[in-house]
Amino acid sequence: MNKREPRLSQTDYVNREGAQCPWCESGNLEGHDRDFGRGMATLEVGCLDCEQFWIEEYQLTGYREVM
Ligand SMILES: [Zn+2]
């Protein structure tokens, strides 16, 4: 399988709120396994158009009270 270079930079991906595939810019995405660590979390995402998979990275940003 060929290794393809993504079209979107890290910043592009975040600015588009993770709504587009970094490789083909499709919005046809599917979330898979998520994993929570200390202060961070990851989510595996797959593109249904080009069949590329990647890991989204989340960071803890704060907390709020439940009303
Ligand atoms: Zn894609």
* Ligand types: zinc ion
Number of strands: 3
Give the strand line-up of the largest sheet.
1-2-3
Whole-number average pLDDT?
A: 95
Largest sheet: 3 strands, antiparallel
Q: Please state the CA-atom Rg, rounded to the nearest Å.
A: 14 Å
Distance between the termini: 51 Å
List the helices and strands and how they pair.
Blueprint: H1 10-15, E1 29-36, E2 40-47, E3 53-59
Antiparallel strand pairs: 1-2, 2-3
Bound molecules: zinc ion.
Zinc ion binds at residues 21, 23-24, 26, 47, 49-50, 52.
Give the tags.
9% helix, 3 strands, binds zinc ion, 67 residues, mainly beta, 1 helix, 34% strand
Task: Give a short summary of the structure.
The protein is mainly beta and 67 residues long. It has one helix at residues 10-15; strands at 29-36, 40-47, 53-59. The site of zinc ion has 8 residues, from loops.
Account of the protein in words:
There is one protein chain. The protein is mainly β and 67 residues long. It has one domain (10-59). The protein is built from one helix and three strands; from the N terminus they run αβββ. It has one helix at residues 10-15, and strands at 29-36, 40-47, 53-59. A three-stranded antiparallel β-sheet has the order 1-2-3, with no helix packed on it. β1 and β2 form a beta hairpin. The longest helix is centred in the N-terminal third of the chain and has 6 residues, at 10-15. The protein is elongated, with a radius of gyration of 14 Å. The N and C termini lie far apart (51 Å). The relative contact order is 0.19. The model has no long low-confidence stretch (mean pLDDT 95). Zinc ion binds at residues 21, 23-24, 26, 47, 49-50, 52.
